[in-house]
Amino acid sequence: MYCLPLRSIAWNSNLMAGTAILDPVDEGPTLDTAEGKSRRSLVSEDTKELPNWISLPPDFIHVKEKFKKKLHRFSQNHHLPLIHQKDQQKGKERGTHSAFSRPFRNHGFVPSATYMRTYRKCDAVHIKEMGSIHKGMSHECYHSKTGRVYNVAQHAADMLQTNKGKILAKRISECIEQIQPSKSPDSFLQHMKEDDQEKKEAKEKDVWFKPALHFVRTNRERPELLEPPPMNS
């Protein structure tokens, strides 16, 4: 059970759409809601026994068990002492409820194009974990990263990838459901295609954009070699 000061609790719309106050006429606390109703069953007037390390001022009241989750969240935000606290999970898929989630109405469905793609060596692939397929899933740190394929297996592809902020290249294996072709080299390939087209048109028109080979005249002056002066020791 958790106890909080009554004057410091502001109930939000999710809890009861009202603010808890003390009624000066009556001894018990009341709750003014939007409907104008007084609900005394939400707050108990009696205070039960608590551990010795918790001191209760006179303006503290005891909250019922059904608000335990709300108070637990409130105590975490305001760094209040907790009686029950679970340890943080340490699995490789911890905290990935949103990262590995699928789009709306696509849960569990794997498009057929995923298995029809062709991967070759030196291809750039983008790692995007699919939450509905747990087989062949790598750690969360590799999610949303781009790697280079160095080996292609029957149902997976091996790629070179950096681990977090380290420059050391790691060789990992990903199933084809967890990777997608990267679009990063598309702009470079498009630029190369346009450059080749411009070179072809310039050659047909006999127009040279770059200077051709020619002699450089010095007007009978000897060239001078520029080098840094020696360091005085």
TrEMBL record:
GO biological process: translation
Keyword Ribonucleoprotein: yes
UniProt keyword list: Ribonucleoprotein, Ribosomal protein
Record's compositionally biased regions (Basic and acidic residues): 191-205
GO MF annotations in UniProt: structural constituent of ribosome
Gene3D superfamilies in the record: 6.10.250.3260, Ribosomal protein L21
GO cellular component terms listed in the entry, alphabetical order: organelle membrane; ribonucleoprotein complex; ribosome
InterPro entries: Ribosomal_eL21, Ribosomal_eL21_sf, Translation_prot_SH3-like_sf
Region (Disordered): 183-205
Similarity comment: Belongs to the eukaryotic ribosomal protein eL21 family.
PANTHER family tied to this protein: 60S RIBOSOMAL PROTEIN L21
Name of the protein: 60S ribosomal protein L21
Protein source organism: Ursus maritimus (Polar bear)
Gene transcribed to yield this protein: LOC103662213
